[in-house]
Amino acid sequence: MQSSQARIDSAAKAARAASRRLALLPRAEKDAALHAMANALEAASDRVVAANDQDVERGARAGMPESLQDRLRLTPQRVVAVADALRDLAALPDPVGDVVRGSTLANGLQIRQVRVPMGVVGMIYESRPNVTVDAAGLGLKSGNAMILRGGSAAADSNAALVDVMRTALSAQGLPADAVQLLDGGREDVGALITARGLVDLVIPRGGADLIRTVVTQATVPVIETGVGNCHVYVDAAADLDMALAIAVNSKTHRPSVCNAAESLLVHQSVARDFLPKVLAELAGAGVLLHTDEAASTAARVAGVSYEPVTDEDWATEHLAMEMSVGVVPSLDAALDHIDRFGTRHTEAIVTGDRRAARRFSAEVDAAVVTVNASTRFTDGGEFGFGAEIGISTQKLHARGPMALQELTSTKWVVEGDGQVRV
Amino acid sequence: MQSSQARIDSAAKAARAASRRLALLPRAEKDAALHAMANALEAASDRVVAANDQDVERGARAGMPESLQDRLRLTPQRVVAVADALRDLAALPDPVGDVVRGSTLANGLQIRQVRVPMGVVGMIYESRPNVTVDAAGLGLKSGNAMILRGGSAAADSNAALVDVMRTALSAQGLPADAVQLLDGGREDVGALITARGLVDLVIPRGGADLIRTVVTQATVPVIETGVGNCHVYVDAAADLDMALAIAVNSKTHRPSVCNAAESLLVHQSVARDFLPKVLAELAGAGVLLHTDEAASTAARVAGVSYEPVTDEDWATEHLAMEMSVGVVPSLDAALDHIDRFGTRHTEAIVTGDRRAARRFSAEVDAAVVTVNASTRFTDGGEFGFGAEIGISTQKLHARGPMALQELTSTKWVVEGDGQVRV
């Protein structure tokens, strides 16, 4: 058996060769391949669902909770949705070849900065099997060869999905190695994230542990995706009905995802009016409340149960029906709290005051700042980017929802008629 | 004495605090500070030159070659040039606040992606003391706090330059910690490149060893700057006079820098005409020639001396008056050679054939591709960016000359009137 290093080297070299083909493909051929992959997945629905059954049964035997089993499960209907996501990608513009900027220099040289694919992109993820297809599709459309390393819980599903897509690529006359799936052990991850010169970018998508491991051990460039300890700040000048709707939606609409809010900060001048209402509504929706002293008083007024909030609560991304709630004396205090506990993902202010909105937008250091809108809008689909590959919480290269454009680099093309430096 | 970790933590925290001020500074205040720094440097010229004398004398005693002593030396005239570079930066547009893209979503949300500073940027370099001032100026103009780690050869010069600039910042009412200089040992570098959460970006600029060390050991995001094994390819359809000028300029104009050419590839159909001329001119300029079999024959025809080229020569960035020269049977062979030996920095083709130019531009994977122009144009100043912080040879975030825009990240601002996800 090959070592991980040899296996990754060989996969990455095959990916590089494929990426050279992909980089030059015109949009029409990439879109045709996306449709071919979508059709092939639907045609192979029985096989994909059968493979997925193996994963779900294995999970059930190992005691996987029902909710996770449901996230893992592929039904014929869900296979159609996965295929449709590829068709949606085909309908999006191709970022490759876009001219980002350009000029004619004083010496007559014409320079232009043009979008080009990254080359070979590794993705390490723990999520549902639809991520496998989304990543393959985003990679193809942006001209990149993808090396995928999915979670072991979805191993059979991922193997079937990738096999179907590779066969479809070959049938289109394209290199199957544009999409590869790693099925080795943990050492494969180590080899992938240190394959300098062969892999252009690695994207970890999953829990905080996975991301930390990849970021600290990788020697190839990484885009960190996101832990989201997101806050909603209700300002002195907030419309309190709007604030109620935004706080509840940010927390409860889909609590398991990174753009869900984890903390609610309320300006003291509206705390007495606002807190009992919002705490009652949150508690009624099943949210466990961690409250500071003032919010605890309001909880007693509202007759809902609460636990005293700790610094650890403030710092925690619950990804569950739990929320930390506190009162702040000023916008500045809210900004300081967010700077201390936020994870630079998404931060929301509810206010009718222009100055407060402008200060919050300018001074909060986060990928996304929302004014009078739910934190849940930080999403590639919501922003109109199509399927997203993740949400970046780092500042380098991509920040916020990452999609096709974020999977590209650029190249300068300089055209002259004999210019030399003097 | 504090540990490196404690020292870097404390420097980075001071830098973070400064960066929050810098991020909100209007352009006018930043430009005024750049002028104040420039004036202060000129006013302190005697002190700066005296400190620099210490460095140069120390170098001379340690046997530093004359050419390096000259690179290190600051004269009153050079101090003026360094100050003028800051004034040039003041004249450039401010990237912070630029709206990169934006739209109004179907639900009425207005979203816009706005340029913001990176925050805290570390720079590790070995170069001449003017880099210290350029980096401080680029950082200030782009709203970033800079933590600088210069080479020990320029320690006294850098200390004087940074002290003068910090005093000028304070006198402008700005935080001196916007520019900090590390003067500890190697452990400082290790602590800086692993200060996750405190440092947003590290840029190594120097030799291949420095860059490799930083890239493999860093856990904060890094932009790799460039080793440049650049090629000039003279196509079958080249204007041979133009090719001669471009080949000689690319090699000899300033051989010690990364955008100098290291290799010359000549299409076989023009080799007999072109090679004797170009080899004679290169040899006449003092270039040591490493030649393949066909080029060796031409060298004998031209009556110039040569050494047989090896694969190691082809792979070497000489940064000196040396060049590897060979004949290729086709454009495809040139592309393969460049793919094998190039470092993705700058690659040039000389050709009158549109198709060859288009293929070379599209298929060569490099930060910059030039058509009928010297490789020496890969330079922030030449591209009109003002002073550059380095030339990126990676694909993430920045590729090619890096200047003000490349020192920024972005933030999404989402404005609504109560929108929630449904």
Automatic annotation (TrEMBL), chains A, B:
<dbReference type="InterPro" id="IPR015590">
    <property type="entry name" value="Aldehyde_DH_dom"/>
</dbReference>
<dbReference type="GO" id="GO:0004350">
    <property type="term" value="F:glutamate-5-semialdehyde dehydrogenase activity"/>
</dbReference>
<dbReference type="InterPro" id="IPR016163">
    <property type="entry name" value="Ald_DH_C"/>
</dbReference>
<keyword id="KW-0641">Proline biosynthesis</keyword>
<comment type="function">
    <text>Catalyzes the NADPH-dependent reduction of L-glutamate 5-phosphate into L-glutamate 5-semialdehyde and phosphate. The product spontaneously undergoes cyclization to form 1-pyrroline-5-carboxylate.</text>
</comment>
<comment type="pathway">
    <text>Amino-acid biosynthesis; L-proline biosynthesis; L-glutamate 5-semialdehyde from L-glutamate: step 2/2.</text>
</comment>
<dbReference type="InterPro" id="IPR016162">
    <property type="entry name" value="Ald_DH_N"/>
</dbReference>
<dbReference type="InterPro" id="IPR016161">
    <property type="entry name" value="Ald_DH/histidinol_DH"/>
</dbReference>
<dbReference type="Pfam" id="PF00171">
    <property type="entry name" value="Aldedh"/>
</dbReference>
<keyword id="KW-0028">Amino-acid biosynthesis</keyword>
<protein>
    <recommendedName>
        <fullName>Gamma-glutamyl phosphate reductase</fullName>
        <ecNumber>1.2.1.41</ecNumber>
    </recommendedName>
</protein>
<feature type="domain" description="Aldehyde dehydrogenase">
    <location>
        <begin position="3"/>
        <end position="283"/>
    </location>
</feature>
<comment type="similarity">
    <text>Belongs to the gamma-glutamyl phosphate reductase family.</text>
</comment>
<keyword id="KW-0521">NADP</keyword>
<keyword id="KW-0963">Cytoplasm</keyword>
<dbReference type="InterPro" id="IPR012134">
    <property type="entry name" value="Glu-5-SA_DH"/>
</dbReference>
<keyword id="KW-0560">Oxidoreductase</keyword>
<dbReference type="InterPro" id="IPR020593">
    <property type="entry name" value="G-glutamylP_reductase_CS"/>
</dbReference>
<dbReference type="InterPro" id="IPR000965">
    <property type="entry name" value="GPR_dom"/>
</dbReference>
